[in-house]
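Protocol step 6 of 9: fold each sequence in the batch and record its structure tokens directly after the sequence line. For illustration, a two-sequence batch is reproduced in full.

Sequence one:
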Amino acid sequence: MHARTGMEKETQILDRALELLEAQGPGGLTTRAVCEAAGIKAPTLYHYFGDKDGLERAVVQRGLTDFMRRKQQATSSVDPLEQLREGWDIALEFALKRPALYALFAQHARAHPALIADAYALMYSRVQRLVDMGRFRGPVDTTARAVWAASQGALSLVHSGASRKEIETLNDLLFDAIVGKLLLSS
């Protein structure tokens, strides 16, 4: 019973931290604010997360788990190009709906590139299938990096001050441009 109570407490703390993050941005995610929001004392927070960095890592990990669950769900198509587009759009929608979490995730991904390994591997597998099918030009490593770089360019627009409509328009332009360059003529 005690372990369950501990997991519930940890979940409660993370829930409050995510609420604070989305309401106030990464700057509002302080240990003091999280403790106040969760109704706990600092030693409790430190018990579960070690320090502020540990709390941030836990928040990022939870967000990443939710994000990857969505990306790995069965897609509406068996076409790897449509799956690639769907994954691309899921990433942008995540960043647009949860900009503060995305900003924190991006900050942590720069410091810990392993955070993006699963997302990159999923995209890479779709590009691999397109190359294997003769639809995308290879080599696969270069092609996958090009797709990743273009998608990251689209994601970078979220914190640029551009409107959602402008971001979505540029997102479509970037996807179409990279795919147009990579597609082999029939």
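Sequence two, same batch, same settings:
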Amino acid sequence: MTTLVVIAKEPRPGRVKTRLTPPFTPAQAAGLAEAALADTLRAVAATPAARRVLVLDGAPGPWLPPGFDVVPQCAGGLDERLADAFARCAGPALLIGMDTPQVTPGLLGVDLDGCDAWFGPAEDGGFWALGLARPDPALLRGVPMSTPRTGAVQRERLVAAGLRVRDLPRLRDVDTAADAQAVAALAPRSAFAARLARCSADGAVAGAAAADPGASR
């Protein structure tokens, strides 16, 4: 069976989802990140796996369900951290991030016996998932991260290595407020959608109070 790996940051204000501020406060952005991470971990927990691993920058919190091995992220750029995550896996592994709370067990239950790699492209040009039948950290080191070409370069790296690559559906990462609204609409029953609704309501109340300071007297 496959090892499922999630690479994530501890959802602390000012350290995660900074592109959501504004319109959200750092605390609200961290709350949205926590909800996205909780949804992601819940989907992973519901997917059959040989092992479930959280590669974490920071400390675990109450959002972590049972059944995960928690290991620290290594130092270096994202390509090095992804490579190190795969280096910890002895057999077939599928790695995802914390930015796609709409992910489901159906998407994660890939069969790595019939191919060499699974690739999940993201709408922003990156990738949300990478599965390797034989984890090789060298396949990730040196790939330029956080660019509109990241996904294309990574997939080309897999093909150039002679791997048989299958594609997962294209998903939208949560980076901006527009992304958050779109993803929440795709997963309306998720913790992420519920947290976004609360943040939006809080913002509407705060905006009304600012517009009419005498209303609270």
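Proceed to step 7 once all outputs are recorded. Observation for sequence two: The beta strands are 3-9, 51-57, 69-72, 93-96, 117-121, 127-132, 165-167.
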